[in-house]
Structure to design on (277 residues):
């Protein structure tokens, strides 16, 4: 078990949404100057851009593109809405291929008033429909279970156990799981389910941030590592004991941090990463 923090920045990835004050062009220069090794790109950052050129610019700065965020949101109340979601996921896969991102993160979706079981069936149908596209493009799809407080409208997949069950049912080597400490830290089954996911070669991604007490906004009050109560290092140790060698991705939605000076914030991310991750 790593009882020590990361020794360097070689596995530090930052999500563009974390520093959303910056355009993708500004972010890539700032990340490169700060020695950030990886980036996960949110699709809104690519709006109105030539995506393959952005990919080239990131590679020329030696920034590894870790994932494209995000696809998913399959549950729908009509066939046409489900088809629209499938089409949007096909576009996400195309965008990942243009960018040179090896994977797309899936926030699977949920619909208030529709049973979670029905939503999960639609999630399975939606992922199955786009897997041939993922296969043609060589892109991995990572199911990200979300905290159950989002089970109403963001994800009917709320634990690694449920994500493993979906992966078992679809059974495709390009389908795996993104483990986000924010969503999963409370789950007594987390260690065991990470082990199962690893045995089935499904540990695709690892997202970090912290849980604030009190949490003042259900979506946009995440903490910087060390500000909250998540045992980040312990969860990272479970990932690494199970041979996860990918990036530690800092994904922080925070009204508070988004107001900070972004240059100062990026320095604080680096020091929090080295002290508290
Ligand atoms: Zn995440």
């Amino acid at each position: 078990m790593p009882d020590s923090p990361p020794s360097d920045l070689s596995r530090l990835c930052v999500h563009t949404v974390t520093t959303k004050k910056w355009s993708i062009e500004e972010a890539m220069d700032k990340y490169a100057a700060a020695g950030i090794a990886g980036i996960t790109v949110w699709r809104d950052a690519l709006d109105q851009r030539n995506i393959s050129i952005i990919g080239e610019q990131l590679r020329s700065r030696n920034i590894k593109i870790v994932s494209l965020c995000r696809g998913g949101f399959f549950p729908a109340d009509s066939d046409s809405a489900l088809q629209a979601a499938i089409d949007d996921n096909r576009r996400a896969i195309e965008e990942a291929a243009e960018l040179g991102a090896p994977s797309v993160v899936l926030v699977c979706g949920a619909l208030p008033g529709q049973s979670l079981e029905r939503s999960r069936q639609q999630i399975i149908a939606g992922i199955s429909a786009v897997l041939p596209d993922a296969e043609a493009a060589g892109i991995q799809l990572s199911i990200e279970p979300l905290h159950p407080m989002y089970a109403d409208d963001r994800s009917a997949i709320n634990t690694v156990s449920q994500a493993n069950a979906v992966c078992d049912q679809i059974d495709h080597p390009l389908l795996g799981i993104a483990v986000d400490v924010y969503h999963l830290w409370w789950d007594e089954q987390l260690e065991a389910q990470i082990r199962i996911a690893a045995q089935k070669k499904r540990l695709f991604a690892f997202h970090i941030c912290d849980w604030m007490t009190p949490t003042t906004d259900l979506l946009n009050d995440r903490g910087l590592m060390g500000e909250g109560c998540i045992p980040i290092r312990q969860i990272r140790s479970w990932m690494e004991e199970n041979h996860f060698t990918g990036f530690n991705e800092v994904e922080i939605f925070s009204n508070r941090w988004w107001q900070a000076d972004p240059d100062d914030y990026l320095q604080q991310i680096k020091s929090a990463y080295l002290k508290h991750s």
